[in-house]
């Protein structure tokens, strides 16, 4: 005699609860909807869908009478449900009162996701689209319409996205901060936008290490037939763009900074000496002189460039021009 297969009541209960939790936001967004269409969406029978609706209809606080209270948690057009097999959720006080994003908050998050969608690989974009949909659905009102316009890639660098998506190597001529040009062969891994400047991070065969390149300094970018030959996951790269030795510019800079402002160097992996008289000396590697200008501008008059000489001269001239532009005519 064969043993009768025993069902698992706990597992069945979990399935029912999971379907009910999923049904609530679906019905909020899609009411009115036929029982047949709702059942097809969840892959269940029409009877099971009707059972979910009946359970939601009586979900809430029963009140003193013990018979349930209108407008308590979930409410449906019951006559439409019984007579025409149509689900129309007319009230959902509980979900509406839970903390949710405002339209402005949702718009800000969606703008950030739009920014990311232009950077991530093609196979990651569906996840961003799904998250955008959830944020829109979870806001208290319709998100404000914000369009994110990103700085375009330089025309020479536009093939980089294709190379990254196809896991191909590229070659290009690269002009560094000193104006010197070198031929590079690189496995491109990731594109990042900092301010209005695009950067590409990849494994450089010439340097035999990870490097960061300004795309507007790339010339004659060519996608090779060779596949990427380094198993470095783009998501494993540090979020700090100019992590040493990630830069390819080779500008080793020595700064003097007030000890109280050392936090300004957090993104540069600085090597900081002990404080002397309230001032520390820091060694950092910059990708370009423009980045050094931005750093100095964070604390005008407080950060002093010590080395190299060409960077000292550049910052001095830049400061003089800035003062002249700001002085009254």
Number of strands: 13
Share of residues in helices:
25-40%
Name of the CATH first level of the largest domain: Mainly Alpha
The CATH topology assignment of the largest domain is Arc Repressor Mutant, subunit A
The proportion of strand residues reads 15-25%
Contiguous low-pLDDT stretches (5 residues minimum) are 1-6, 243-249
SSE string? HEHHEHEEHHHHEEEEEEEEHEH
Q: Could you give the order of strands across the largest sheet? A: 8-7-6-5-9
Q: What Rg do the Cα atoms give?
A: 30 Å
**Mean pLDDT score, rounded?**
75
The biggest beta sheet reads: 5 strands, antiparallel
CATH architecture of the largest domain: Orthogonal Bundle
> What distance lies between the first and last C-alpha atoms, to the nearest angstrom?
104 Å
Q: Tally the structural domains.
A: 3
| Structural class based on helices, strands and sheet pairing | alpha+beta
Apparent shape: elongated
Q: Helix count?
A: 10
Pfam family, one: HTH_PafC
InterPro entries: CBASS_pafABC_assoc_protein, PafC-like, PafC_HTH, WYL_dom
Domain WYL: 159-223
Domain PafC HTH: 17-136
């Amino acid at each position: 005699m064969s043993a009768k297969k025993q069902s698992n009541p706990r597992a069945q209960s979990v399935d029912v609860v999971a379907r009910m939790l999923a049904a609530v936001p679906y019905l909020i967004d899609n009411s009115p909807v036929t029982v047949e269409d709702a059942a097809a969406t969840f892959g269940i029978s029409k009877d099971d869908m009707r059972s979910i609706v009946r359970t939601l209809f009586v979900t809430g606080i029963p009140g003193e009478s013990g018979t349930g209270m209108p407008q308590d948690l979930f409410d449906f057009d019951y006559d439409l449900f019984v007579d025409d097999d149509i689900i129309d959720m007319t009230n959902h006080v509980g979900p509406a009162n839970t903390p949710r994003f405002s339209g402005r908050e949702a718009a800000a998050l969606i703008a950030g996701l739009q920014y990311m969608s232009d950077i991530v690989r093609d196979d990651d974009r569906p996840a961003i689209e799904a998250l955008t949909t959830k944020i829109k659905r979870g806001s208290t009102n319709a998100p404000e319409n914000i369009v994110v316009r990103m700085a375009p890639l330089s025309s020479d660098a536009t093939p980089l996205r294709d190379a990254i998506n196809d896991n191909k190597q590229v070659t290009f001529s690269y002009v560094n901060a000193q104006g010197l040009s070198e031929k590079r062969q690189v496995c491109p891994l990731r594109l990042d936008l900092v301010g209005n400047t695009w950067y590409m991070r990849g494994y450089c065969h010439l340097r035999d290490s990870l490097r960061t390149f300004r795309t507007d300094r790339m010339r004659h970018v060519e996608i090779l037939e060779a596949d990427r030959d380094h198993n470095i996951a783009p998501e494993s790269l540090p979020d700090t763009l100019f992590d040493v030795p990630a830069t390819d510019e080779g500008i080793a800079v020595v700064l003097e900074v007030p000890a109280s402002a050392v936090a300004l160097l957090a993104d540069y992996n600085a090597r900081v000496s002990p404080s002397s008289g309230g001032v520390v000396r820091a060694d950092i590697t910059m990708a370009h002189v423009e980045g050094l200008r931005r750093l100095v501008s964070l604390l005008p008059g407080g950060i002093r460039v010590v080395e190299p000489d060409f960077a000292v001269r550049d910052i001095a001239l830049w400061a003089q021009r800035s003062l002249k532009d700001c002085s009254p005519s």
